[in-house]
Amino acid sequence: MIILRMTNQNPEQIARDNIDKQLLACGWIIQDKKQFNLAAGLGIAIREYQTDVGPADYVLFVDKKPVGIIEAKREEEGVRLTTVEDQSSQYANAKLRLLNNDPLPFVYESTGEITRFTDYRDPKPRSRNVFTFHRPETFVQWLSQPKTLRARLHDIPALPEEGLRDCQIKAINKLEKSFKDQRPKALIQMATGSGKTFTAITFVYRLLKYAKAKRILFLVDTKNLGEQAEGEFRAYTAQEDNRLFTELYGVTRLNSSFIPNDSQVYISTIQRMYSILKETELDESAEEENPNETRYIPKEPVPVGYNEKVPIEFFDFVVIDECHRSIYNLWKQVLDYFDVFQIGLTATPDNRTFGYFNQNLVSDYGYEKAVIDGVLVPYNVFTIETEITKNGASILKEFSPLIDRRSRQTRKKFWEALDEDEVYSGKQLDKDIVNPSTIRTIIRATKENLPSMFPDRVDGNGNFEVPKLLIFAKTDSHAEDIIDIVREEFGEENKFCKKITYKSDEDPKSVLQQFRNDYFPRIAITVDMIATGTDIRPLEVLLFMRDVKSRSYYEQMKGRGTRTCTVEELRAKGTPAAKYSKDHFVIIDAIGVEQSQKTDSRPLEKLPGISLKDVLTSVAMGNTSEDMLTTLANRLIRLDRQLLDKDKQKFIEQSGGFTINQVVKQLLNAYDPDTVTNCELEITNSLRGQAPIEIEKAIDNAKQQLIENAIAVFHNPELRDFIVDIRKKYDQIIDVVNMDTITNIGWVKDQEAAATATINDFKQWIESHKDEITALQIFYAQDYRHRTFTYTMIKELCEKLKHEKPLLAPLAVWRAYEQLEKTNGSAKNELIALVSLIRKVVGIDTTLTAYDKTVDKNFQEWIFKKNAGQHNAFTEAQMQWLRMMKDYVTSSFSIEKDDFDLSPFNAEGGLSKMWQLFGEETDSIIKELNEVLAA
C-alpha cells in the first residue's frame, strides 16, 4: 500500500495514522484535545487527553461520556502488547481532566496492525486480539446491559438431559464450561451420525435463551450443507419450551450479499461470508463444492478489509460445521475477522484442526466409541482386485491398428489409427483409458457376491433383493459407464440404478430423496456430491471404484454407511425383505482404497499443478492474487491457440462481447507496474490539495477496481463451464482388446485375524474376572437354576467390561464371532449380547445363540412338559400372562414380584392380576420361570 505522507514520520506516528484510519472506518470521529466537540457525533476519540497519571493516547467518548482508552504503540511493540496492559489499565482507572469519571471499561492496546481489547466489566477480564475497533453503537448497547456476554455465560442453567444421547450431553456440558472459562475456541468431535447438528442447535438455543447472545453464525462450506442445517433448525423443537426453534428465533440462510440484522441465527457458506466481507458478488454455483477440494493455495491470501455493514462484533458466536476442511488459508480470514467465540464441529479432525482450536477438545466421540455405544454400525471390507486395475495393460499396434476413441465432452466415438503401442497403468483407467471389461468384471463380481453378504434378503417370491448400494466413481463420464453396465449386469430398468451428481439431468436432491426413502433406485452412483453431510440410513453397501488420498475425506465417505437403521425403517424406506435391523455395512474395495496411503490433509500444491476448473473457481470466489490472475491469463492464451473459430465466437457470446485476448489483457493489466503507476499519478493529480488519507483511499479503490474489471466476466458460471467443457474435447481411448480377470476376491484377511484377537481378548477378560464378579460366578458354577442373575448384575458387568476394555463391548465381540463362525440369531442389545457371549465362552452353548432365542426355546419346552399328561395346563389368559413374563425375562434376565408394578404388567392389572390368574401357584411359577428360562 502506498503511503503519501509518511516519508518523514517516526514509527509512533505511523502507528497512530493506522489507528486513525481504523477508527474512522469503525464510525469514530477523531479530535484533538484542544479542539474537541463531544456533540459532533455518537462516538468521539480524543487524542492525548490528560488524566491524573498523564496524557492517554486516545480517550473514547460515547454519547458525551468517557467509556474507553486506546494505548498506541509502534509496530515493533506488537510482540510485547500484553506488557502494556498495566499502563493502559492505569489510564482507564485514572481521573480524566475536568471529569469525575468512574473507571473506563473498554481498553485497547494497538500498534495499528495488531490490536488487543479488554472489557473490564467481564468476570476475570482477559485481553484478546481483535481485527479492529468496535463501533460506538456497540458500546451503547453493551453499556445498556446489566451484564457482559461473558458474565451471562455463567447464567446458563444445568442441561435437561431427557432426549439427548450421552455423547451429546457430555459435549454440551463441556462446551458450556469452556465458555465460562472464556476459552475462545472449542472443538467438538462427534462421529458422523451421532447427532452433531442436533447438538449444535441445542447449545445455540441455550446461548440465545440464557446467555442472551445477539447473533450466531452457523458456517458451512457447501450450499447443500447449508440447506440441510436450515432444515434441521426449522424442525428443532426446544425441549424447555416445546415450541419450534423458528417460532422463538429468526433463522436466515444467506444467499446474496445482503445480511438482514433482525435474525438471531445466520447460516452461510464460508465462501459467501468471505465475498460479503470483500463486498463482491458470489454466484451460488461457487457454493456447490467445498473450497478444500480446490487445489489452489495462494501464496498470499487476498486480505479481508473492514466492512461497516458487518462489523467485527456483528456475531457473538460462530459454529463451523465440517471444520476440518475449510478453515485454513484464504478462508481463515473470515474467522479471524469476527470478535467471537468459535465452535468447530467435525467427525474427522486432523492435527491442523486440533492446533487451530487450541487443543480444546470438548467432545472426543469418534467412530469406534459410537460403534461401541450402538450409535453407529461397524463395517466389513470385501476386496475385488483385478489384473488390469493392479498392473495395467497394453494395446499393441501390431494387433490393433485401429482403436476406439471417445470425446470426453460429447462421448461421441470414432476410430483412429494407433501410432505406437499404448501402454497404460491402472491409475489411468477411466481418465485417459476406459476399459469396459474392468468395470463389468467388478460389477459382475459384486452382483454374484451380494447374496452371500446378505443371505436373508429374499422377497416373498424367492428373489434376492439388492441392498441399497452406493458406488463412488472417479468422474461423471466414469459414472455414465458404470450406470450402463450395472443396469445390464443386474438385468434391470432405468430406475434401478441412477446417478447422483451435480451434472446429472435430474434434480440431484430429488434422486437423493428417492434413494433415501423409496424402493428405487437400489443402486446410486456419485462422484462427490453425497460424500459428506447427507443422511442415508438404509444404505448398506459402499462400492469404491475411485481412490481417496485424504484420510478425513475417506472417513467422511465411509460415514455414509455408518448410520443405524431399525428393521422397521429399513422395510419402510426401500428394503421390504429386511428381517433384521441394520447392524453393519459392507465396503467393497475395487480400487485398493483401504490400502492406499492416506494423508491428514491435502498437500500444498504449487500453482502450475492447479486445474483450469480450480483456477476459474478460485477467481470467482475472490482469489485475485497476482499469481492467480497471471496463471489464468496464461491458460487462456494457450486455450486461444487451440480453439476453432466457432468456439472463439462462442467465448465472445458468453463473455458479453470480449475476445479471449481482451480478457487476457485486462488480467495482466490488473497488476502491471506501469498501469498501476499511471493510475496512482492520475488520481494524485486529480485530487491534489485533498487530505492525504483521502488520496490514499482513492488509489486503493482504483487498484481494486482494476482487479474487479479484470475478473468481472468470470462471475458468470456459464462462461466458466464453457471454458472447462471446451478443454474436455481431448478424447479418451476405449480399450476393447484387453479382457480383465479377477486376481483376488473375498473378505479382508486382516479382519479375520482382528476378529480372532477380539474373541481371545474377551475370553481372557471373562476368565480373569470369574472369581470376583457375581454374575460370572453364577455362570461358571452353572447354578443359575438356583441363583438368578439380575438385570443390575449384567448391567454392572457390562459397564465394567466397557470401562476396562472399550473395544470389547458386547456388540463388537458378537460381530467378531459372526465373521468367523455361524451364529444363531442376532443381538438385540448389548446386555442380551453379553449374556449370550458368556454362555458361549463358559460352554453352556456350543453355538453363539441370541439369548432371546434361548429363552424362547426353554419356554416352549417348559410349556410342553406342563401340558404332558393333561390337555392345556394353562388357560389362554394365563398363557398371555406367561408370554409377557417370558418376554420380560428376555430383556431383564429375571423377574421378581416388584417387577409387576412395571410395564407391561401394570397396564394389565399388575401383581393382583397375577394372583387372580395363578393363585397359590404364583410364587412357584415365578421361581420356575427364573430357573428354566435361563437354562
UniProtKB/TrEMBL annotation:
GO terms for molecular function: helicase activity. Residues 177-367 form the Helicase ATP-binding domain. Pfam families: EcoEI_R_C (PF08463), ResIII (PF04851). The keyword ATP-binding applies. Gene3D superfamilies: 3.90.1570.30, P-loop containing nucleotide triphosphate hydrolases. It comes from the Bacteria. The keyword Nucleotide-binding applies. CDD domains: DEXHc_RE_I_III_res (cd18032), SF2_C_EcoAI-like (cd18799). Keywords: ATP-binding, Helicase, Hydrolase, Nucleotide-binding. PANTHER family: ATP-DEPENDENT HELICASE IRC3-RELATED, TYPE I RESTRICTION ENZYME ECOKI R PROTEIN. This is DEAD/DEAH box helicase family protein. It comes from Flavobacterium aureirubrum.
